[in-house]
């Protein structure tokens, strides 16, 4: 292979992992134009809350808005926005604000010393603000700021200084809820969190001061995060913000539509050594990265791709000329570590009504999506379902009996969810051998040794299932088997709920785009026989399973998925 063929002079680079809008625009990176949402944001309420899962482009969106509204970037407007939608349709408010950007993910320390971390982060940011806008603020602003201690009082001083100078502020807060994981991890953390967000708590005081500033020089706010939990605890004090996370008109503001993904692939296919058509690449990516819907009214119209994962795939494809062997980037795995906590929380309060177990075994869950809720009410089933939705674990897939129908959006989430679901058995010092599973998976894919593979799953099921699990019968067996097969790197398990064809429990669809030399595909139909069932009944169930598997093997889902592999 000649590595030089992958070097194309003048070709736009992929902005994978980048969050600085100016760098993307000035250094010839590919940018998916989201600036058409700027007029819509301006038409919305001035104090704008917006929640999206991690790796969905929140920070880049905020950075783009900062460059659009900052008085300092007025001379760069044409270079940054000229060929974008907003460059052709600018609003009167462009480049008219002093921009204050706070990133709460940069706050160090736990909830027990949160004040110290908030003071430190804000202190540095406020000083930098005074230095950057020194020519637009009263001469003694920096000196006056240093004479005041603490984030709350310094913010008070800062917005009053802007008001004296006749300057308007635009406040951006990224990851306002970064400590949500700590809130959910232990009762002690929840207690500390409650102290910070209720009464005279420091965080509550800070947001109250933001509210006071909106009567003065803070003219607009844009606040983002991944969870609505903190918002509810803060908004009784900061009750002027509007949560637009579920609004249909902002459904496509973050993430990529399929049209945007196709546009990106069409651009790179014209100047790079692509070995697949755009349609073929979409077929590879869609099961893994697509299928997010953030507004019930938008269901059936369009779905959103995780933007970070799309960039990861395209970057690897351009670099190597083929799909990445690992369809999930390592940073996503780290981000989804919170799943372990959520699953354990679910298990703690769920008893026999586990939300996640119902989701896995039934294929969907129903609930009322909440704009916000207090942390102490997380155990309410609708609140917990809403939390999973906001974290990106669930997506809207229609309605069912008057409630939102929610499903696992794609393979990225499914793999992580099922992995951590199995890991809950570690509570009892039970574990699954990674080496053994890997060897059995390889033999299943290349040697057709299905007896050893499914025998291993049956053995795990027998050893690890509790009596309470066994009482759930067929649904538990199906969910457990689905979770185990989802860890097989050679296959994409397609469940009955996904196909809507009602013929089979699990179709192990081969990952031929990655492992083109695979030899075998599998259809799995599970039948649950009770301990006291006769041999005749067991044989009857076996024949039913064979008949269902045979019917399903003749469907388009299977024919399209198996390629040249034989089906077992």
Task: Name some characteristics of this structure.
Rossmann fold; alpha/beta; 3-stranded antiparallel β-sheet; about 50% helix
Summarize the structure.
With 568 residues, the chain is an alpha/beta fold. It is built from 27 helices and 13 strands. Strand 9 (395-400) and strand 10 (403-407) form a beta hairpin.
Please tell me about this protein's structure:
- The chain has 568 residues and is of the alpha/beta class.
- It has 27 helices and 13 strands.
- It has three domains: 3-11 and 255-327, no CATH class; 32-250, 3-Layer(aba) Sandwich (Rossmann fold); 432-568, no CATH class.
- The chain starts with 20 loop residues before the first helix and ends in a 6-residue tail after the last helix.
- The model has no long low-confidence stretch (mean pLDDT 83).
């Amino acid at each position: 292979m000649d590595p030089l063929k992958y070097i194309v002079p003048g070709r736009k680079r992929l902005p994978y992992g980048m969050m600085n809008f100016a760098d993307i625009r000035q250094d010839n990176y590919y940018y998916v134009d989201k600036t058409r949402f700027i007029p819509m944001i301006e038409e919305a309420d001035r104090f704008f809350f917006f929640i999206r899962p991690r790796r969905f482009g929140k920070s880049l969106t905020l950075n783009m808005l900062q460059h659009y509204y900052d008085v300092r970037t007025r001379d760069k407007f044409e270079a940054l926005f000229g060929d974008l939608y907003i460059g052709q349709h600018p609003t009167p408010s462009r480049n008219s604000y002093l921009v204050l950007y706070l990133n709460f993910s940069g706050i160090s320390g736990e909830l027990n010393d949160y004040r110290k971390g908030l003071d430190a982060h804000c202190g540095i940011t406020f000083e930098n603000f005074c230095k950057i806008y020194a020519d637009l603020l009263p001469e003694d602003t920096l000196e006056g700021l240093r004479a005041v201690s603490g984030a709350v009082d310094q913010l008070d001083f800062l917005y009053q200084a802007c008001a004296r100078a006749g300057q308007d502020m635009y406040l951006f807060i990224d990851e306002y809820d970064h400590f949500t994981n700590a809130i959910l991890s232990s009762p002690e953390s929840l207690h500390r969190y409650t102290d910070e967000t209720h009464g005279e708590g420091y965080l509550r005081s800070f947001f109250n001061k933001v509210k006071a500033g909106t009567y003065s020089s803070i003219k607009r706010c844009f606040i983002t995060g991944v969870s609505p939990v903190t918002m509810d605890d803060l908004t009784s004090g900061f009750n002027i913000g509007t949560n637009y996370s579920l609004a249909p008109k902002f459904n496509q503001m973050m993430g990529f539509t399929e049209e945007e993904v196709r546009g990106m692939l069409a651009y790179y296919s014209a100047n790079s050594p692509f070995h697949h058509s755009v349609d073929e690449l979409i077929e590879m990516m869609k099961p893994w990265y697509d299928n997010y819907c953030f507004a019930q009214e938008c269901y059936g119209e369009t779905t959103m791709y995780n933007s970070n994962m799309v960039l990861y795939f395209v970057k690897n494809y351009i670099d190597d000329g083929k799909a990445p062997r690992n369809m999930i980037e390592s940073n996503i795995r780290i981000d989804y570590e919170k799943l372990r906590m959520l699953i354990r929380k679910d298990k703690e309060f769920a008893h026999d009504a586990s939300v996640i177990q119902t989701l896995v075994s039934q294929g969907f869950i129903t609930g009322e999506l909440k704009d916000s809720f207090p942390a102490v009410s997380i155990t309410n089933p609708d609140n917990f379902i809403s939390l999973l939705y906001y974290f990106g674990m669930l997506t809207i897939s229609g309605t069912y009996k008057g409630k939102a129908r929610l499903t696992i959006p794609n393979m990225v989430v499914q793999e992580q969810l099922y992995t951590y679901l199995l890991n809950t058995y570690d509570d009892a010092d039970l574990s699954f051998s990674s080496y053994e599973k890997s060897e059995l998976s390889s033999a299943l894919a290349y040697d057709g040794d299905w007896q050893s593979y499914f025998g291993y799953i049956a053995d795990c099921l027998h050893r690890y299932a509790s009596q309470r699990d066994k009482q759930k019968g067929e649904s538990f067996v199906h969910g457990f088997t689905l979770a185990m097969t989802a860890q097989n790197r050679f296959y994409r398990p397609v469940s009955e709920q996904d196909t809507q064809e009602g013929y089979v429990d699990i179709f192990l669809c081969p990952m031929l785009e990655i492992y083109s030399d695979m030899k075998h595909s599998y259809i799995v139909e599970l039948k649950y026989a009770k301990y006291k069932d006769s041999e005749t009944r067991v044989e009857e169930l076996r024949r039913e399973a064979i008949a269902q598997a045979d019917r399903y093997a003749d469907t388009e889902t299977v024919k399209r998925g198996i390629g040249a592999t034989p089906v077992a």
